[in-house]
Amino acid sequence: MNYNQNHKIAQITSKTLIIGIDIAKHHHVARAQDYRGIELGSTCFFDNIKEGFSTFMEWIN
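Now predict its structure.
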């Protein structure tokens, strides 16, 4: 690994929330995990519309 990658990895702490999103044309899927890679909560499915984004933001909070 190079310096930049090590620096990025070092920024992840026990307080870090990692959210991954699978972006598609109409329907998206998101999931959250902690710094160890353990999944938190349930998977979030939301549509590519304003109400879907609001659903996603509520899920994050």
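The mean pLDDT is 92.
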